[in-house]
Structure formats: structure tokens, C-alpha cells
Amino acid sequence: MKQPFPFSAIVGQDDMKLAMVLTAIDPSIAGVLVFGERGTGKSTAVRALAGLLPPILAVKACPVNSADIKDCPAWCEISDARVQSIATPVVDLPLGASEDRVTGALDIEKALTKGEKAFQPGLFAQANRGYLYIDEVNLLEDHIVDLLLDVAQSGENVVEREGLSVRHAARFVLVGSGNPEEGELRPQLMDRFGLSVDVLSPTNIDERIEVIKRRDAYENDHEAFIAHWQSEDATLRARIVAARAALADLQTADSALRRVAELCIALGSDGLRGELTLLKAARAFAAFAGDQAVTDEHIRKTAVLALRHRLRRDPLDESGSSSRVARTVSEILGD
Amino acid sequence: MTLWERAQLAITLLAIDPQRLGGLVIRARAGPAQAAMLAAVQSLDLAKVKLQHHMTVEVLNGDIDLTASLAGRQLVTRKSIFDCAPSLFILPMAERSAPQFSARICQALEEGRGHALLALDEGVEVGDGLPDALTDRLAFHVTLDDLALQDLSPMTLPRSLEDIRAAVRGVTLPAEVMEEAVILAASLGISSLRAPLLLGYAAQAHAALHARYEVTEEDLKLAVMLVYPHRATRLPQDPEPEAPSEQTNPAEAPQDPNQAITPNDLMIEAVKAVLPPGVLAQLQTVVKQPASGSGSGARRKGNHRGRPLPARLGPKNSGARVDLVASLRAAIPWQTLRKAANPEAVGPIFKASDLRHKRYEIGSDRLLIFTVDASGSAAVARLAEAKGAVELLLGEAYARRDHVALYAFRGTGSEALLPPTRSLVQTKKRLAALPGGGATPLAAGLAAAFQLALQERRNGLTPTLILLTDGRANVALDGSNDRAQAAADALMLAQKIAEAQIPALVIDTTIRPEKTLQTLAGKMRAHYIALPRSDAKSVSGAVSSALAHS
Questions:
Q1: A145 touching B, CB under 8 A?
Q2: Tens digit of pLDDT for each residue in A194-215?
Q3: What is the mean pLDDT of chain B?
Q4: Hey, what CATH topology would domain A30-197 get?
Q5: Distance between CA atoms of A45 and A131, rounded to whole angstroms?
Q6: Looking at the partner chain, which of A2, A37, A215 has a beta carbon nearest the beta carbon of B112?
Q7: What residue segments make up the domains of chain A, in order of their start?
């Protein structure tokens, strides 16, 4: 298989790239929803993200990538406490995946050959401490959505069926992409994504030409292209790691908290989740920018990402929610 | 260049570089033209695999082969159908693809295995056809419906494809050519960035076919005729159809960089030559039927959750769970016979025919939303009929799992007379007193019904809209008495209802069938029924039969 397209080589789409970087800095932001037209590089960006993320340390034999042997679930009976560095998992949840595949189920191989009742971990286990990517998320079957809602909320996967009783940690960043023309998303699922981005294909001719040129170079001059962009990716990775470290010492003044609350009230966004996410996103952005404290500027830059999918929708309102958020932001924070 | 020659060229180019071109859509009804093309494809030296719509998730994704595993007492896995050497996949009746199915094909095309797809689109109407996500990934699209029998000639493909294939990657693609491809795409309103790339590859393949080492204007022109016309949403001299409704970055909006660069007229002519007249105008009025899977309620039957149904024979459904008890029960009666035939076997002997699968039924009730015109013009009598119909329908609601809601509109707005309910008693009480008279705010009534339909659909009901009116809208959405605006608002809402795929029924209550109402029903994709002398029974009957057909 080819190396994925490098993250830094993606032309434009700054919102989408920023949103993904923010979740890499603070995984508790809990996800990115990328909605947009065809051929705008949605899935390219997610595949690229896998190559960008810094590696994590995980217990060698642990099916849920635990950092420490204490965290390994009891059912996997691990005695070897050695850890190894692995790439941050980015797991694909394919449409039409069965419930068993997603949550894990009875290990049929062991049941058949040895007559043992054992648990075979599913995608939720694989994605723990990493990313779970759903392409065409709006076409996902309802019963899988229900599973996802529960696990994304609780951070724990519980399987109680066919004589099995198993639980394990399942904390992951949810990344969904889709084309809104093909179907809508339940508000409940939308809410589980911390940030949301609307991607349009670039309107600028030069930018479009650049996209085509880079894609062509990627296809036809693969090695040189990858080598050229890998150093850029490394720089970005170093910034992410630095921002993660800086996050702990970052100051959040009460005035910033008040700003965030004011914004959310003015927009009438549902629940407190929007407020919390905006705060986290603004903090991550401040850390990424190398600043010491959260300012209005950071809030301004992240408000649309964190809030646009949380507004109560009016089917008759033609102007999109992005512009509604932007309008309110400039009313409250000034221009 | 005739249509048939174009089709032939498309197949040839695809055969030269299937990996990068992705594939070809042939839009044609089954017939000699389609058959001739398929025959040509069969003669290609590519591995060919036929896809079928009933292929289960296990086949598409690869999974444990349960039957073989049980029989062999060891784990047998089956590979995904896409897990093979680069092949040309043939998808018949592509317009019938379920969204999950086509999404899986898209993934397979992008996995980098070098697969290509030949989609046979037998769609009839303008709106139906292959899902856009799939069309976008396939370079070519040919429509063969307008061919006469005499146009057909046997297709001849070049003999030595091997040499051409080896040469195609070496063909130079000058930067100016790619720029021209991008500019042309922008001026034709093609937003996907896959299009210019595919165009470039098609031009390369064409150059290789003619043993050239660099893409020329001629190559590009021919490639344009194959790759761009079906993607075009406008022609360059047309004004912008509409500005993008959402500008994420307002600073970018004012200057349009496209204006500075004008595309090559020669190329535009090439596209125009291929486009049948009037196609673009048609495209703008037709709503592309969105795919219907939605992750948002309204599933009807499954094998995962809901009310359990009796277990079923055979692994017909994808992802179905084996009902162990039922399977054992099915196998036990045969054990003595099977043991006799197979004396050395230990334990119960299973056959594929013993497997029983769990099935569940998920309740998805229907919601009939009556939207009744209570204005002076519609005559108060209509209201009585609507009330009667609601009561009649509710009488059968328990048997048919229907809920009913009723909106009336008159004066300046609409009023929810009855929230979704199945209670007959409550309904009768509420319906007893309903005043009539006043103006006709059709748009407001539709808006209220539409909102309710969307909301209840998210709750898992399947809404159907039933509109009883004379269609003489005279109050706009903002409450003003502007007749033209009122009609425009009503049409806009009708369009939205169609886009949301809410089934609808329009009952015309005027003495002479109203033309404007027929237009409205068309926009809404609704059944239209003229019932000049309706009574409660006939309304209820019309609703029942229209619903039975949909």
C-alpha cells in the first residue's frame, strides 16, 4: 500500500486541518464532523492525519492499547507489563459493519476449535486512545449509531450477550465525514462530535490548480513527494506535542469563561456541551499558537467550529448556521 | 464524432488505464446498444467480476464463513470480493444501488488496489441514476439512449494494449494543459476536483493510444468530450446560477478570480457538442433524489433489535445472528439419520440447512399529517369532510399502525388542531369546534406540516403529508397579502418537502381541477387527486388507496 497523502500537503481547507489538529492536542474535544461536497479531500485529510499523529506507548499484548498494565481489562489476562511505542490507532468503521464487529463478540474460532468461550475485541477496542473514522457517517445504520452514541458518551464499551459479560475502555476521537445531500444526521449524533467543519471546494483557480498538481505529483512522483512533505509533517507534529505539554499551564481567565457563556446563550445552542467544547477548543488553539492565556481571539477563531452544528435548526432558514455563529461572534466579541 | 464512436473511445481509454480512470457509466436501457458495449468489454484482457445488489456485507467486506466453519470444525474466513488482483467490476442496474452498497464500492475504488467499475445505469427519469458519489469517481459517462440500430457497428479495440499501457505513464502532461483543465472545470460549474485529474489521465491515455509522448490540444479536446459534459452544471456565458449559500470566509467573497481567466472556446464547443440541448436547464429544476438511508429513524425490519419474530431459515440476510436454540431444534430430529450415514462423527451433525437466524421487527408507525384549508374560499364544508376522514382513518388506526395529526390554515397562519395521536376520543373532542373563513395562507400551513414531519421522522415515525385545499394561496409566509409571493412561497416549501423525501398527497377540492395545484403537487412529488364532490368516505378511501400504491 502507498503512504497516505501527507497532511501538510493538503491545499487550503484550513478549518478542517485546524479542527483535526485541535483534537490531536486535546483528544477530549471528542471529534470532528466533516461535511462537504464530493472531491474536497475529506477522506484524504483523515488518512493523512494517521501519518501525522505522534506515537503512543501501549502495553504490548493489550487489545485496547492500554498505557499501563493496571488499565488492561481483566478478561484479556495479560501478565507481561512491557510497553511499546505504536502509531496512534486510526480505525475505520465501515458502513454495514455488523454489531459484533463493532463491539466485539464471542470468538468463534476459539469456540469452534477449542470449545472455549472467549471474547474477540471489536473496532471499539482497537480505537481506544486513538481515532475512530466513519466515512459517509450519515448513511450509518441506526443500530450502529445507537451503539456509538452510548460508547462515545460513556467512554466504556459493555458487551453483555450470548453468555459473555465484558467491559473495556473505549475512549476515542470520533471523526465522521459525509455529504449532506445524501442524508442528514441525528442531532444526538451530531452533538457527540466536538467540532464540525463545512468544506467547500476552493473557488480560487490558482488554489485548484495547486491541488491538482500536488495530487498528480503524489500519484506519479511518489517517493520524492513524500520525502519533501515529511519534514513539514514532522514540524507540525512537534508543534502538536509542544502544545499538549503547554495545555496544562495555560491560563483561562474568568473573563474568557464569561465570553464563552455569553456566546452560547446568545446563540441558544443546546446544552452545556457546546460551552465546554468551545472552551476546550479555544484552549487547545491558544496552546497551539504558543500563547500563555486564552483571549478573545482564540475564542473567535474556534467558535464556528465548536458551535455551528449545535444550533437549533430552522428548515426554512436559508442562511447557514456558520454565518449565524459568525454574526453573533462579531456582535459579542466585536470585530 | 458520433455517439457510438465516443462510447468506443471511452471503453478503449478505460482499457488502457483502468487504475487511474476509475471507470465508466453507461446510461442505457437494456438493448442492442448496451449488449454491444458489454460484448466489447468482455473481449478486454482485464479480469472481470460481476457485482450484484443482493451481495451481503460478508461478501463485500469478507467475514467468517459460518457454514464452512461449522462443517469443518475450524475457522474458515472468506475474503472480500474486492480483495483480488486489479479487476473491472461490472455493476448492472446501477441506478438501484443502495447507499451503503455504493459507498462500499467507492471505498474499494479508493483503496489503491487498481480496481475499476463499469456501471450500467438503466435509469429512466432525469433525476434517477447512479449515486453522485460514485459517478464522481468514474471518469467517463456515455448515454446511449438516442442511438438507432443503424448507428451500431461492432466495436474494434486496439490489438496491442500491452504496449500502450506501458507507455501511458510516460506521456508528459504539460502544466498548461492541467491549468486549462482546471479553468474549464470551474467555468462549467464543476466543483469536484477529481474531474480535472481524471481529464488529465484520459488525455494521457488518448495520447498514448496515438503513440504520442506529450498530451496535445487534440487529446485534451477528445478527453473533455468524455469526462466533462455530464458533470457540467452551467455553460460559461450563463450567469452564476446562485451564489453558494454559505460563505465560510466572507473576506473571500467579493472578487471572483474565475472572471479574469476565460476558458478556451474550442473546449467549450467540445462540451456543447456533446450536451443534448436543454439538458442544463432541466438539471436545474430537477431535484436529484437524495439517497434514502439516513441514520435518523424509520427503519422497518432488521435482525438486530426490536420485537423478536420467529427465527428464519437460511443465511439470506447480511449480518444476521444465528439463533442457536432454534438451529439446534432444527438439527436434532435428523441426528439419528445423519449419525447412521456418518457413524464416526462425534456430537451433533450440523448442515447448512439447520441454521436459523434471529429476526426482529422494529415498529415504524405511519403518521398521516392532514393539512386542511379552512379559508373562506375553500368553503367550510371541506373542513367537515376532512374531520370526517380523520375520524374514519383513526378508526382503523390500531390495525394499520397509523397516527394522525391535523393542521388547519386560515387567516394569517396555521394552527395545530391535533398533535400526532392515535386516540379517537381525544380527536373527536378537539375536532368538534373548528371555525372556518378568512384568507388562504397555504405556505404557512405547509411550513407547519413540514416541520412536524421532519420532527416526527427523527422520532422514528414515517410521515405522510395530506393536503386538502383549493390552491388559491393569497397570504405569503411573512403574513402579507401578496398573491404572487404567496404562490412562490408555497412552491418553495413544496420543493423542500420533495427534497426531504416526505411522501405527500394533494387533494384538490375545487369544482374544476386547479392548474396551479397540479404544479404544486408536481413540485412536491405528490400524488394529485381531484375530488370535487368529496365526502369523508371518499377522502378516506382516496388516502388509503394512494398510500397503498406508494
A1: yes
A2: 899 988 888 888 888 888 889 8
A3: 76
A4: Rossmann fold (3.40.50)
A5: 13
A6: A2
A7: 30-197, 254-333
